[in-house]
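Entry
Fold in token form

___
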Amino acid sequence: MKEKIFTLENLKKIIEKKRKKGKKVILCHGVFDLLHIGHINHFKEAKNLGDILIVTLTPDIYVNKGPGRPAFNEKLRLQAIAALSIVDYVSLNNTVTATNIIKKIKPNIFCKGPDYKNHKDDVSGQIKEEIKAIKKVGGKIVYTKSETFSSSKLINSFDNFNNPKDKIFIKKIKKNYTFLKIRNLIDDFKKLKVLIIGETIIDQYVFCEALGKSGKEPVLVLKDLNTEEYLGGAAALSRHISPFCKKISLLSVIGEKAEYLSLIKKKLPKNIDFKFIKKINSPTILKRRFLDHINKNKVLGVYKINDSILPKKQDKTLNNILKKMIPKYDLVIVSDYGHGFISNKNASLICKLSKYLALNAQVNAANVGYHGMRNYQNLECVIINRKEMHHEMRDKNNTTEFLMKKLSHQQKIKNLVVTRGSDGALIYNKNKNKFNFCKAYANRVIDRVGAGDAMLSIIALCLKSGFSNDLALLISSLAAAQSAETIGNKESVSKIKILKILEHLLK
């Protein structure tokens, strides 16, 4: 069995020798998470097309089929495929798609299942790139005809792979929505005109090696290895929405000297129009975090910020801009970090003029005890984490549900979302007096910074578009999971990843 498993480089050398002997090479590629009769028939049909059958697998890191997937790790999946006598060689891919394998191995035939024949059903669009690659190396693509079985559907049906509550939750969504319907609804987000308001923040991550305690003082000494900078705050939120909508506007604030403006322009997608107020006597907000480069744990945070309110003249300018801009947009999303950009007066104006308003009013190290969401009323959607809500309500004893109801009625919030880390998220609809729950979908949490903004950006689009609270919570929880699985705001939410996970969850 082991003699069938090779690295791509070694396999390339072996196949070059076989090809010189006139052997016809067939390549099959996939996850093959739960080996079943559909896979075996697919391999049989593929082998009949030539002499040598190679099966390559997607590595665990690139399997994008939802929580708990793959069910079997890459080592076990390699061993399972290698155990089949019909398969000649097995290898693990090292990229997202099979295009690199096709270019290296140069198979005569690239074999895919019949479910890939309709390219419109391929959410990722990868099949088109793979077809280009196989044609470029002089091969062709062939679709097998044998009956297909879905690993995801089989896994979803097993109780030991899914919590009963999770199965009920997904079943309820499947009763009202097909994957195709959800995909079309998400595609319709492009029609929405979205305005995002809030502070732009530069998230600077300094990766360090811990050298130990200073010889003379009780101080931890770090060796600076490298630094990465990402767009945070409202700029990050606008990036999350950019794959979903055609027209997005960002109204934000930067420093008087416009530090980092070139970086901001470079990292903002082209479909985002932006307008910045250059705050007098202020720097562009910089949040520097020092991390251990091995486990990515944060050691220290240093902020460069002037969180005083905007000078009167600039506040009036912002007021005039809001009056002109807000009526033009279907959806307004405010991420208020409490750093002095949005005054009480302008918060009230935003609430008054917005057709549909979603809010994240964050409590953070720089504003705790001074910032809250009391300036905002009559909101369609608010997202807040559990700790922030208890702080907002000045109540640490009552239940989350009790406080959600109380806050919703006080602030006139139609849909209140409370995130609870590994305990998942709750949404409360004030008009229906109803709670909906969704579990946390992150396979591994690397950094929680930005997860709330990622969730807000997507749930606002969903609720504005009339999605059920269950479905809106599921899709936005997948967005939050994407954010939590990467460092800070390094990556924006991927529409393709969300669609692929939904496709497999709903089988």
About this structure: Residues 6 and 369 are 59 Å apart (CA to CA).
